[in-house]
Amino acid sequence: xxxxxxxxxxxxxxxxxxxxxxxxxxxxxxxxxxxxxxxxxxxxxxxxxxxxxxxxxxxxxxxxxxxxxxxxxxxxxxxxxxxxxxxxxxxxxxxxxxxxxxxxxxxxxxxxxxxxxxxxxxxxxxxxxxxxxxxxxxxxxxxxxxxxxxxxxxxxxxxxxxxxxxxxxxxxxxxxxxxxxxxxxxxxxxxxxxxxxxxxxxxxxxxxxxxxxxxxxxxxxxxxxxxxxxxxxxxxxxxxxxxxxxxxxxxxxxxxxxxxxxxxxxxxxxxxxxxxxxxxxxxxxxxxxxxxxxxxxxxxxxxxxxxxxxxxxxxxxxxxxxxxxxxxxxxxxxx
Length: 335
Ligand code: SF4
Hints:
This protein is an alpha+beta fold.
């Protein structure tokens, strides 16, 4: 491939067709970093309003560093993958302590929650470092362009090629151009090769089987567990408890529940008063098949809190329990 001509075609297209997103054009490392953390597991269109709301709440890295964890989790609610929010706050505290953002990808990686990809994205966009932001998205596009025959279960396998291709004059724009190309044109399914600005450079397209790249490893096995979730009422309030500070959904609030268990195991002493909907939630390596029960208790069990609708709304709750949270809110408000 003529790498120079490829870069020129990619950036020419980016300058004319890039997506207008609220973080585009900024070189403020706090804003770039925040957008990249939000984009890690969430689509850009969904991130845009959340990004602006988060910035309105925490306009500077110092404001975020000074916030308590629960306020940050609350601002993150609905985005999922809450460890991102916890790490964001811890990293903000570290930046505030140092007095400035680290300026190289290597240094950025010392912050909590900042891996190779995020470090490279921030270093390239905010500080012009020629570091490829090699996530699954960029890996897919490069694997197709190069007809890369190995699997890219870890995008790092492509690192040498990615480093050779990146534009050294405009590394931030180059990385963002590949992000846009991957999300709008070189999509996982049915890539739009006819409208692709770099089709002339693409080896997979030339071979006529673009979609068969990247070569994929076997799918991950997910463990399925049965979970009983209890909406237990005490005098017009519902019982909630906080999850442990480590492990799955750490620090979030939840209704009493037990994997595979009966009501007696999920909430000893509760009386069942009805069945609720079933719900299913898929985590990375785990699936919860949830059965809901309505119940009553006569006294507040140890370690629990009884909240009204307003109290429930104020607590950071995992997306996995959103069906039951919605039922509880409707029941508490007598709808
Ligand atoms: Fe992707 Fe097709 Fe463009 Fe190749 S030509 S980079 S497969 S969209």
